[in-house]
């Protein structure tokens, strides 16, 4: 039977009696009906996926949910189950999450978010028979042949978001809210600013981060996200783009309160936000297809086709990033967006990854 299995927070005694706190989802069905795929590894064993989330866990309507959607799609096709774990608020237990999943026999094990990049190489070395992947962190210099990096050209998709914002802005003033000020989120900012300036060189662009480097709370604090975005709307911005995970909910709320518009990130947030009042302000979303990357990796694993020690980069040429069209708010500028996309793919526009 095909199934997706979550797990509530559990305590795990590791070496030195270290306590592990981890959050996971309740058990849910991933599919039903007659016939379940053989799935699993190349040896025909049932697929058992371990998924360690980034800050906020499943339910962020963004990055983590996209990763889960990829696992869910793979399991629907291949059969098997998934174990989900989330880090504590400060993320200090990420190594323990990966260790727990490997110890319990989950294979492959996927770390969602760049923060796992600091420790996943060590865990992969301790469990050489387990296949690991990490989203948003390069693995090429780690020397682990059982580890794959799933990367994205966020700056390319964000360039299109910036172009769309500049084309649709009525005030000539837009904003960007980042969750945590680090090189990854700065890629979103860099592309967004470049895209907006490609359309309107003198456009005013406010940029602000919710938390500094090393403080991951900026990805899970909608109240602070709302305060930051509200300041931009009050200053004259009429469109604000967020790359702030769960804090993006606050950006949407600020847009709704101000009569402005917002640009979502990672998932098609017009479809996932839930509240019609917030849905109405989401002009588009910069799609970062974590779901596709995760599903493809699991499929490769099931076919014994994973090439470890390498990075897989998802960009505009592979539709790994792009813009959503739900709601129809950018239909009138789609031709210009498509032209910019092709120029980037053809190398006519080189998008910066650093602000």
TrEMBL record:
Keywords: Cell membrane, Lipoprotein, Membrane, Signal. SUPFAM superfamilies: Periplasmic binding protein-like I. It is found in: Cell membrane. The keyword Thylakoid does not apply. Residues 54-353 form the ABC transporter substrate-binding protein PnrA-like domain. It is a lipid-anchor. Residues 1-24 form the signal peptide. It holds the Pfam family Bmp. The keyword Lipoprotein applies. Its main location: membrane. One of its GO terms (cellular component) is plasma membrane. Belongs to the BMP lipoprotein family. This is BMP family ABC transporter substrate-binding protein. It comes from Modestobacter marinus. The lineage of its organism: Bacteria, Bacillati, Actinomycetota, Actinomycetes, Geodermatophilales. The gene is bmpA.
